[in-house]
Amino acid sequence: MTVKLKVLLIMAAILLASIASSSFVVSRLIAQKPVLLAMEQDVAKVSNFGVPLLDSIREAKSDVQSMRNGFLNAALTGESESYERAQEFGAKFEQTAEAALNFSNELGLTEISKGLEELMGELPHMIPLGQEMAETFRGNKVRGGELLEQFSQGSEGIILKLDELASQIQVETFDRMSDLANSSDDVKKMGDQLILTMLVAGGIALLIAGSGGAYLYLMIGRLLHYVEQDIDGVMAKAPADSLHLKPERKDEFGKIAHALRIFLDKLSEMDRLQIEQREVERRTEEKRLKDMLTMADKLERDVGKVIGSVASAASEMQSTAENMSSVAKDTTHRANDVAQSSERASANVQAVASAAEELSASINAIGHQVEQSSQISQNAVQEAERADTLIQGLAEAANRIGEVVSLINDIASQTNLLALNATIEAARAGEAGKGFAVVANEVKNLANQTAKATEDITQQISSVQSATNDTVDAIRSIAKTITQINDIAASITNSVEQQGAATGEIAHNAQLAAMGARDVSEHIVEVSQGAESTGTSSESVLSASSELAKNAERLRSQVDDFLLHIRKGSAA
Description:
By secondary structure, the chain is mainly α. The chain has eight helices and no strands. The protein starts with a helix and ends with a helix.
């Protein structure tokens, strides 16, 4: 028989004892239910009808007494108020007696109900008698005395009957309360029997549980002691024959014995596997160290190439930034020259306008001024074309810087990827790769800083390109305006030859030339501002390239420290 079945049998015995005791208790409670319900109904009747009935009888007696006293007082004194109060108490008696009759019927008190009905039948005769007595007594003492005697006897009879009814009600109520007390004693006795029954049943259940528990404790305790000894023997790798529990047992401990023998076999198998595992771990560690050294050499080559490319790109950016600064300064200088030429052209055009007003006296001076204005315009055109060429070179240099920045950004991305790979390899290396992970993180941070620097440089280059485009547009507008001035100067020359017919035309062209000169001055200011913006941007590019070169050098130092740490770890 298995241990599980033994436990189930003991639990079944306890359960049967509990069910038997519970069934007995429930049956006794069911038997008590009608008695308790009857008691509850009797208590409710006494409380709801018995007490109100007794109160109604007493109140009816008080009403009769008050009615009698009222009629007597009215007969003796003749007060109308006493007469009216007597009638009111008579009417009130009828209501009180009716309520008492209802309570009596609810309680099933036949004699009481019959007595109340008789009293209610007598009262209608008493009220007219009292009225007649009160009215007659004041005029006829003899007849009034007779009526007074009849009224007093009748009312006193009603009062005595009410006292008898009250006594009967008290006796009836006492009898019912006695019955309730007896029923309560019976219920109490039944409750005591139930308690005794439950105690006996509980004692039997405890006896069964204690006996079964002691049996299970002794039996299972001995078997568990054997299990403990056998487990110690298995852990000590003792022979299977020395174990206490045998697999042939038909209970759960037979399965435990079988499992212990399987575990003993597995321990031997585990010893063999551990030896093989240690050999595999030794080979794996050797391969890991070799792979780490190979990876360190590859990382040194790859990162060296990347750092070299970054340093080269930084140097090229510095050179390009210096060229941009030089071009910007040259552009500013030439823009100032063009501004001065424009101012001279404006002054000459004003002189032409003045000469037009005095054409008859200064034709030779006008011709000289027109010729000089034409020469200045040609010089301005040449200067504008030269400035346009320089700005075009500046734009090409900015584009080349953009390409270099793109290359640096690609290098930073590749460095970030290498740092990520290094972090992964460091995680695989475990404790030996902690320093590797720290250095790889520093490499990743430097790559991120490089990417951020290239973003700043890209923004600065965009500003330079925007300023360069604005400068190109302004210079082209200057060239167009100077060409207009040159055309106007030619017109002035033709007008000088036809001075008689073209005086008005000369004045008009002079005004146009003045406006063109003002446009030239305004555009030259824009060119100068664009050149200054270009110079500022080139300085920003130069600063960013210097920072990039410093970051490249720091990256080289971190990588060297990282590789040195890896090689030391591999050697250890």
